[in-house]
Amino acid sequence: MALTLAQFSPSGELLLGTADGRLRTYDSGTGRLRAVLGENKESAASTSTSGLANGHLTERHTCLAWAQGTRKEKKKKGASPLAIVGTAAGDVKAYNTQLGELVWRASNCIEGGVTSLAYSSKDGLIYATGADCRICALDVQSGAVQSSFKASKHPISCIALSPDSERIFGGSSSLALWDSSSQERVSKFTGHPTPVRAIAFAPDGSHAASVGTGERSLALWPTTNAPPPTASPSATTTSSGKKAKRGGLRAAVSSLPCPDPLVTLDACSSGSSAGGSNPSDFHLAGVSEAGDAYVWHCASVPSTSGRQAGEGEASVEGHLVAHIRVDAVKGSQSSAQGEGQPSEAIMAVQLQPGTEGPVLLIARGTSAKPAFHSIPLSQQHIQQQRQRAGGDGSSAAEIVLQAATGGVLLDSTVVGKGANGTGASEHTKSSKAGKLQHSKQDVTVLGPENQGAPVVVMGQVAAGQKRRAEGTEDEAPVPLGERGAEQEEIEDEGGIEEEGVPLGERVAALEAQAEGRPSGGDGDGEPEDAPGPSGSSKADSVAVLLTQALRSNDRVLLERCLATSSSRVIHNTVARIVPRDAALFLRAAVDRLLSRPARAGQLAPWLRALLHHHTGYLMAAPGAQAPLAALYQAIDGRVALYQQLLRLYGRLGLITAHSKKAGAAGDGEAGAAGPEPEVVFEDASDDDDEPDAEDPFALE
Question: Residue 263, by phi and psi: left (phi above 0), alpha (psi -120 to 50) or beta?
């Protein structure tokens, strides 16, 4: 079961929780939402820098802590505490829980992520640690780094500060105790087989309890500054399975069994305001991974055998006092499956001193609607719970909290002390068919944090235009709000009926409207997706369709958007999409260009507009480098042949020109049947002046 990261304030009046990246504070007395920390300003800043639509999801919170306000706020009566938050990016943030604003932010103070926080009211410092094996001290007023020292050779998973703020106890699988002023290690302990998940100091600071990840036991360690004992070769095995070695390793003084692995721990003195108990006795409470709460009573006894504690150190004996869980709702999915898991889980617990003994404050439910309970842990009350459950005097008391069945807006439970004295919520049922009754006090009032963007319905306008098209002009169209019919007709230029029309038909109608052809696409004998002349399409509608196609990976819708040929619409559409969608569009366009180079004429205007409007983001985005390189190689491969083809074209043109010239010269002389003789002899004498020769054989 995924648990919500939550923690009570030192006074128990507020609960700080985060489950989806949002930080919320709730009033434990009324159960109502007090504030959403940094929702407006910080989310907008995170959105602008990361390019994501939801800025609250850009950071993952890893640990929480509470601190007192600044010096100016301390002087004010009833000043709200500060909420300290650590992130996986290594930042530490402080919020004003009354105004819900970010007070300061220490960026990258812990490299690799913050894993644990601790507050020192004595020095006004926030101690942060994490993956860089260092402990960093931050000023609670400004967030400035006051000091930093390397505390271990391995990443530290959890730390806790002693009640007097003089010692720091923590580590990973191996534990150590440091002096906060000198920043030197005082003692070293055997530790756990797995990294420590939670640590809690006893109220007097003599012992500290720790639990490892996945372990079903708690280990109690001596945290006094006494010299560590020297372990003998025959030292017994500690609760973690390790043997105390020579050289100053201190072993656990006690080990308490736990049915389930724990994720949080808290401690409180067992004494009451009236006195009458040992001041060194204390209670331990924790939340398990299954969403149940467990309470132990621990008492310090002098060590006589020395089996687990060192010489001069007091041992601790403890036993399980109570087990608190949330009952499964009848008819729910979990109860129907028979798995025995509750529909709700306990998020956080806190032990507080009471008049008759400690009181356990519990927060259960979800971060959207938590419920709070107060359970007394006096001996008389625990004995009553044991008798009611049918157990003996030595067994743990079983306390069952009734789960809410009214949902988030209407709560069917009454927060407070129930009739059985357990503090559990009691269902209020009516006498008719067992239905739940709700009063005016049960209604949750919606505040500004529940406000969303307004939704405009265009179905009424489309219906009015349809009636006018059918000839019923005498009937006035149904107005949308207080606007007139003429204004509605001007705003709805497309005239597309959207009520009850599938998305595919609306997209086809928008495409036909943009290309200036009929909406049907079948009347002129052309296919529906045939490219037509570019019309006066709207860039905002194409941008919406393009964004939807990219985020849903709809290839058909993307091809319809790419069919737009108007350069103005293309530039305006690309300018409207966010940078993250621009990177997705670049990859999709380049893939289509590489698979079908013949589409270069269609994709070139889109790619040109994309590089024109989003060059800065594409150059910095790591995921856009591969498509840009592929696009450059494809263009370079085509351009490389351009010079060679140009030279070949010139030579072919020269040869063609010479051939045409030679052919024209040969066709100019008509009647040239063969080659002419080189020498022609002509007689210069006149044949008419010479007399004809007489023929001697001629007859007279």
Answer: alpha
Residues 172/157, Cβ–Cβ less than 8 Å: yes
Q: What is the pTM of this model?
A: 0.58
Cα–Cα nearest to 362, from 432, 316, 290, 425: 425
CA distances for 471 relative to 185, 475, 490, 492, 493, angstroms: 91, 9, 19, 19, 19
Q: Is 366 left (phi over 0), alpha (psi -120 to 50) or beta?
A: beta
Task: Give the integer Cα–Cα distance in Å for 617 and 51.
Answer: 9
Q: How far apart are CA 462 and CA 692, in angstroms?
A: 118
Whole-angstrom distance, CA of residue 84 vs CA of residue 104: 10
Q: pLDDT value at position 7?
A: 93
Tell me the residue ranges of DSSP E strands in 44-144: 61-67, 82-87, 92-96, 101-106, 114-120, 125-130, 134-139
**Strand-strand pairing, 315-326 and 397-401:** parallel
- Of the listed ranges 127-141, 147-161, 285-299, 496-510, the one predicted with least confidence: 496-510
CA gap 610, 606 in Å, rounded: 6
- 480, 461 contact by CB (below 8 A): yes
User: From the DSSP assignment, how many helices (H) and strands (E) are in the chain?
Assistant: 14, 31
Distance CA 696, CA 700 (A): 10
Identify the pLDDT of residue 452: 55
Report the 10 Å Cβ neighbour count for 517: 19
Whole-angstrom distance, CA of residue 644 vs CA of residue 136: 66
| SS3 at position 467 | helix
How far apart are alpha carbons 597 and 592 in whole angstroms? 8
What is the residue type of 329? Answer: V
Tell me the β-bridge partners of 7.
16
Give me 455's structure tokens.
Answer: 């939704």
Q: Which spans in 492-623 are helix H?
A: 503-515, 539-552, 555-562, 567-576, 579-595, 600-613, 615-620
What pLDDT, in 10s, does the model give residues 581-626? Answer: 888 899 899 888 888 888 888 889 999 998 899 888 888 887 788 8
pLDDT at 371 over 80: yes
Neighbours of 287 (CB within 10 A): 27
Q: Tell me the two tokens of residue 505.
A: 């038909």
What is d(CA 644, CA 129) in angstroms, rounded to the nearest whole number? 65
Strand 114-120 to 101-106 pairing: unpaired
> So what's the pLDDT on residue 616?
85
631/586 Cα distance (integer angstroms): 9
pLDDT, tens digit (0-9, with 9 covering 90-100), for 469-509: 444 444 444 444 444 444 444 344 444 444 456 777 777 77
